[in-house]
C-alpha cells in the first residue's frame, strides 16, 4: 500500500492545505459547510454498508466469507458508525450530525429530502458539489469492485480534516455558548477512531483484497485518487458558496 500512499500524497496535501479551511471564519460559514458536508457523512455510511454487504455475510442462510480479519474490522466500524454512544445514548454518527446541524441552526432541508426519497437518490436539494460527490461514490458502489470500494473508503476518510479547522469549531463553540458542541464531538470522535486501530486495519483490508494482482492494485489506486478528487471538488464547491 506504500505505492498507493505515495501516488495519492499530492492529493492529500491539496486537501490538507485547501483554502476552504482558512476561509471559514464565522458561524454562518460553518453552517454552510455543514449543509454540504452532511451529504458526505451519509455517503460514507452508504459506502461502509456496501463493504459490509460484500465482505461479511448479511444473508440467510449464513455462511462465512473468506476474510475473517476484514469481517471483524468492517463490523467494528459499522458498530461505531451506526451505534456509537454519546452522552449515554446510542445513535449513528449521521444522526448525531443532523442533531449538530439543528443545534447550530444549519438547514437540514436538503438532506431531509434525500432521506424522504429513499431508496431513490433524490439529490435536488443538495448543493452542486455535494451532489457530484455522492454520485461519484454511487458509481463506485454500482460498479461492485470491492477492492476499489475499500480503497475509496480507506484513503478518503475524515482524518483529512486538519487541526486548524477543528480548532475553529472549538473556538466558535466557546464563543456561542455550546451551539457547536455536538459538531465538535463528531469531528474529534472521527479523528480519535481513525487514528487508533482503524487506519492501519483499513490499509490491511485494501492490501488483502488486492493481493498480488497488479490490475486490482491499479484499480484501487485509481479509486483512491477519484475519491480524493471528489472531496477536493466538494470543498471547492463549498468555498465558492461562502
Looking at this protein, list some descriptive labels.
globular; 242 residues; 2% strand; mainly alpha
Describe this structure in words.
Helix content is 75%, strand content 2%. The chain is mainly alpha-helical. A hairpin with a 2-residue loop joins strand 1 and strand 2 (89-91). The N and C termini lie far apart (37 Å).
Largest sheet properties = 2 strands, antiparallel
- CA-to-CA gap between the ends? 37 Å
Task: Write down the oligomeric state.
Answer: single chain
Mean residue pLDDT: 90
What best-fitting shape do the alpha-carbon axes yield?
globular
User: Which bin fits the share of residues in helices?
Assistant: over 70%
The count of DSSP E runs of length 2 or more, i.e. the number of strands, is: 2
The low-confidence runs, each spanning 5 or more residues with pLDDT under 50, are none
Structural class: mainly alpha
Secondary-structure element series: HHHHEEHHHHHHH
Radius of gyration: 18 Å
- With strands numbered from the N-terminus, the spatial order across the biggest sheet is 1-2
User: How much of the residues is beta strand, in percent?
Assistant: under 5%
- Compute the number of helices: 11
Give the SSE map:
Elements: H1 2-16, H2 19-23, H3 27-55, H4 68-82, E1 84-86, E2 89-91, H5 93-104, H6 109-117, H7 128-143, H8 146-155, H9 163-175, H10 181-210, H11 214-241
Antiparallel strand pairs: 1-2
Helix pairs in contact: 1-11, 3-4, 3-5, 3-7, 3-8, 3-11, 4-10, 5-10, 7-11, 8-10, 8-11, 9-10, 10-11
Amino acid at each position: 500500500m506504500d505505492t498507493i500512499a505515495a501516488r495519492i500524497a499530492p492529493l492529500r496535501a491539496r486537501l490538507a492545505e485547501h483554502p476552504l479551511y482558512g476561509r471559514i471564519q464565522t458561524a454562518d460559514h460553518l453552517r454552510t459547510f455543514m449543509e454540504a458536508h452532511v451529504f458526505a457523512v451519509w455517503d460514507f455510511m452508504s459506502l461502509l454498508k456496501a463493504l459490509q454487504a460484500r465482505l461479511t455475510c448479511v444473508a440467510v442462510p449464513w455462511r462465512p466469507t473468506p476474510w475473517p480479519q476484514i469481517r471483524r474490522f468492517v463490523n467494528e466500524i459499522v458498530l461505531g458508525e451506526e451505534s456509537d454512544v454519546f452522552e449515554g445514548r446510542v445513535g449513528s454518527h449521521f444522526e448525531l450530525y443532523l442533531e449538530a446541524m439543528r443545534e447550530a441552526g444549519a438547514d437540514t432541508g436538503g438532506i431531509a429530502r434525500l432521506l424522504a426519497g429513499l431508496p431513490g437518490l433524490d439529490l435536488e436539494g443538495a448543493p452542486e458539489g455535494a451532489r457530484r460527490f455522492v454520485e461519484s461514490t454511487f458509481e463506485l458502489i454500482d460498479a461492485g469492485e470491492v477492492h476499489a470500494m475499500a480503497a475509496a473508503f480507506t484513503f478518503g476518510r475524515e482524518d483529512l480534516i486538519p487541526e486548524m479547522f477543528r480548532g475553529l469549531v472549538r473556538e466558535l463553540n466557546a464563543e456561542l455558548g455550546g451551539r457547536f458542541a455536538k459538531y465538535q464531538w463528531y469531528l474529534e470522535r472521527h479523528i480519535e477512531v481513525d487514528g487508533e486501530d482503524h487506519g492501519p486495519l483499513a490499509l490491511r483490508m485494501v492490501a488483502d483484497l488486492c493481493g498480488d494482482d497488479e490490475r486490482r492494485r491499479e484499480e484501487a489506486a485509481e479509486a483512491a485518487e477519484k475519491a480524493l478528487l471528489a472531496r477536493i471538488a466538494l470543498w471547492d464547491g463549498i468555498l465558492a458558496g461562502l
